[in-house]
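Page 42, continued from yesterday. The earlier attempt failed because a stray header line got pasted into the input along with the sequence. Redoing it now with the clean sequence only.
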Amino acid sequence: MTSSRRTWWAVVMPALTLIAVILLEISNRTWTIRELVVISPMAAATLAGPGLTTVYAVAAVVSALGLGWYDSLDTGMAGGWTAQIVRLGGVAIGGVLAILASRYNTGRETTLANVRRVAEVAQQAILTDVPPVSREGLRLAVRYESAAAEASVGGDLYELVDSPWGTRLLIGDARGKGLGAVRLASRVLGCFRVVARGRRYIHEVLPDLDAEVASVGELDDFVTGIVAELGGRWLTLANAGHPDPVLWRHGRVRLLAPSGRQPPLGLGAGSARAARDNAGVVTVALEPGDRLLFYTDGIAEARDRRTGEFFPLLPAVERALGEARTLDDALADLAATVREWTGSALGDDVALLAAEVPADPRPALPGTPTFSTRRQAGLAAPGPAPGGRRGEQSGLAAAGGSASASASA
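This time it went through. Structure tokens are written below.
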């Protein structure tokens, strides 16, 4: 519930309970249920704080006393004042227990809120701003949607750096929730900022990130992620167990899925065998007007609260990227759509990063390797540098408008 709705319900629900018990008690003369007025402070304890619970506890005792007088329960036939005191004592003890329960619940919620607030601040501190335009002229936009208040803060991460070979980006999701996931995400981002500027080929970044996660994480910790390079007219990405990005072109969308999969960071991503098999690497020729969307699994796994149906990602992305004039508008529309789908109850945080190739992209900077220089550098040959035949063929096929190594949506 939202805060206002919960406050309203916390006031009304115990009051309705108390009124219902009173009405049932005075509407008959054959049996008595006045002891059930203790339900009112118990209901308040689950919905409100100690102050309001105390009010309803006192109201329950007063109501029980009044109903006893109304039904003449203090007469000798009804047990006299001794029985009356026992009945009132039971209601009073129930009210005291409700107040203590409310104090405990309030303290626990305060502690959880403080922990969540610290995690959110830490998360915001490690996620830097993304410029609206990259050095190569690519338009960029990012949006971060926090999960519902009941959910823990996730370890979603993104970063963008300029390198001598093009704009490089990382998007990922650390396993788990809370401060542990935020801490792991911060280490991955710090490592990426360093190695992305020093590795000639984008796939060479994965082994460093994998080693960083393995060294600082627990035994079962891992990070799914995509590292990508946007240089001129080419996109090269290496996927380590992360949801496939989406390419929007001429009003249609498709997933950029690799022919083989790599494990997440921390579980052997970027290994020699993966490099030899060219696993997880996709190279695509970009065209003016192309739009790319990188995202975390918070949106892919979003469900309808009533039916449990998964969020229709591709139709929603196709509509958002096609109808919006700017990338910021597109991400805002997509975020609003998933919020509406889930009833504003996301189960996990959502990170969205979009890029657009302008109609007149800037020429590649001196020293930026073109596709031909990549091939001459040995990417077409098997060995430690993937991006060979499969990546080359996928890029050429995409340039010709036919099927690439990316799987069609």
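Notes: The radius of gyration is 30 Å.
Reminder to self: strip header lines before submitting.
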